Amino acid sequence: MSVYLGIDIGTSGTKTLAMRRDGKILASATAEYPLLSPKPGWSEQDPEHWWQATIKTVRAVLKQGDIKPSDISGIGLSGQMHGSVFLDEQQQVIRPALLWNDQRTQAECIEIEKLAGGRKKLIEMVANPALTGFTAPKILWLRNHEPKNYDRCRHVLLPKDYVRLRLTGEFATEVSDASGTLLLDVRNRIWSKKLLDRLQIDKDWLPRVHESEEVSGRLNTSAAKLLGLSVGVPVVGGGGDQAASAVGNGIVKKGVISATMGTSGVVFAHSDEVQYDPAGRLHTFCHAVRGKWHMMGVVLSAGGSLQWFRNQLCQNEMAKAKKSKIDPYELITNEASEAPAGCEGLVFLPYLTGERTPHADANARGAWVGLTLRHSRAHLARAVIEGATFAMRDSLQIIQQLKVPAKEVRLSGGGARSLFWRQVQADVYGLPVAVTNSHEGPAYGVALLAAVGTGAFKTVVEACQATIQVVDATSPQPKEKKIYDALHPIYQKLYGSLKGNFAEMAKFVQDTAE
Known about the structure:
- There is one protein chain.
- By secondary structure, the protein is an alpha+beta fold.
- The chain has 19 helices and 24 strands.
- The strands form 8 sheets. It has a 7-stranded mixed beta sheet, sandwiched between helices.
- A hairpin with a 4-residue loop joins β10 and β11 (190-191).
- The longest helix has 36 residues, at 478-513.
């Protein structure tokens, strides 16, 4: 029996699954780990936690699925993008990794644009502007603020690629994740020598770049012993979490777009050619499909906004859900459905951790705007759901303005599990939305890549066609669509009205923290 492992190094935990060649999931396991925030706006993790979670989940999957080591034909790796693991000459971790949602590098982003010759020149070189979440600003931050650590540095790896190093001993990455470093020539799928020279970053610090289905190394003796696997199992390039999730959802051809409503929200569009937003509001990255690209808008706190609402304002629901063994989000969305579309003028801005698309503003803040005595908690909950979906529509709108076809939106993440939220998304986007038989996200996508890379399928498209089908679809409701079409422009204007206040608030927090 040929079985493929997909390992996803996420922000809150690592998920491993075992997939049979026909796409059937045999077993899955998750292990969580902490997120460190030593200062406001900082976000770090200990890479050792990722490795220990990988060992734990692989062993759990083998046991749960009664899978023999000899059954495993390939391994695919996915993970949170942009994070920076700094290693010394002995391949030892120098300091905790800086993550994708770390906001400390605004000054370094300005420095990068200046060294590149301006924002326009930078986008021409690497298809993207400098954003605080990306890897390149983190390297400059280390140089500017921790020079002793910088002097020790000899390698920089992304989260999944650190796990690859532990698995295989190889310094390797692949095009989709490397695109998010801001150091890849996205058009030509190689490191950008021009930008590396201008930033004075040693190219030898960076791993070699593969296509996502290519075999990047093989399981070494020590890793095989720890994981309970056979020595020599092929490990393919894999993918950054969003490209891998897109593969796992069948977003591998023109006209199909995905909207993933997880902690962050991502609108993802496949592209056969390199296309980029001249204003830099969207990311343009290499896809995990050989020779293809994708455009992506990112909402930093989409599902995260509803998670915050649950944690802070729904203690009774959480206790009730635990007692009755139901999902607390089901109770919250049921209550939200009692409020009318548009919440009688109540709007929620979901900028709880700043925002990336379209504002690229680390100082943006969340807010309910329009509260009156008529509003109940049902209105508050529905406004959070609508606000997060409006933020996703911002990205979809830019993609449509760039003439990228959008005939169908495939949903995944927590926003896809709720029938109510699926309908809100259809109404807000004004397009049919669909869910597939694939619910396992990035781990499933990289298991498919492992199957392609080891010869089970000829191409990624063939693998997706053989394993992924649409199982349900939801159409927009004309009345609700009309309401959201009228409310969305009001939502968009609120950021512009409050932008200056957000900056003042951020300065106030910084000043009082000191």
